[in-house]
Specification:
177 residues, alpha/beta, globular, 8 helices
Length: 177
């Protein structure tokens, strides 16, 4: 089952519209459901149903401005699509229904840290081997990060560094496949 079929069968498309427009409030969810479905059909269906090199990057960043900036950078500077969530709880819920190609996690989330979120995600069979980048302006336990095989980017980082890291991860995953 591909990403499009999973979305098409999902009962809670309202969650995904909140991801796409994380600055909208729940009040707008009902009105946006059909718009999201149409947008998803047009923007992602072809890429999800073909062997296109386009990938889905899943961002979990509690600072909405940074999250939206990352989303725009990825979608404007690469051929990839991105989804943004502002907390681990919503991310865990969404990741039960979709299969991204890369996780981009903030370490300092409001409901759990990025390593804890990563550990929870490892319990999902479809996410067990997904490449992950952890971002932080703080000093997270680097030994734990490296032990898990997670790449680390210290904030603030250059856009070129993020894009190069994403490119490197996708190249190494394709090489291993």
């Amino acid at each position: 089952m591909n990403v499009y079929e999973e979305y098409q069968g999902a009962k809670h498309l309202h969650l995904d519209i909140r991801v796409m427009y994380s600055n909208y409030h729940l009040l707008f969810m009902t009105e946006a459901r059909e718009d999201f479905h149409e947008m998803f059909d047009q923007a992602f269906q072809l890429k999800a149903n073909t062997n296109s090199p386009s990938k889905l990057i899943f961002i979990v960043e509690d600072d909405e401005e940074i999250g939206n900036l990352l989303l725009k950078i990825i979608e404007q500077e690469t051929i990839h699509k991105a989804i943004h969530h502002v907390n681990a709880r919503d991310a865990l819920d969404a990741l039960t229904r979709i299969m991204p190609h890369l996780l981009l996690l903030d370490y300092s989330l409001p409901d759990m840290n990025g390593l804890e979120l990563y550990d929870w995600l490892q319990s999902f069979e479809h996410l067990e081997y997904i490449p992950t980048i952890l971002m932080s302006a703080r000093n997270p336990p680097l030994e734990e990060i490296h032990r898990r095989g997670i790449l680390f980017l210290r904030k603030p980082f250059a856009v070129t560094e993020l894009l190069a890291t994403i490119k490197q991860l996708f190249a190494s995953v394709e090489y291993q496949a």
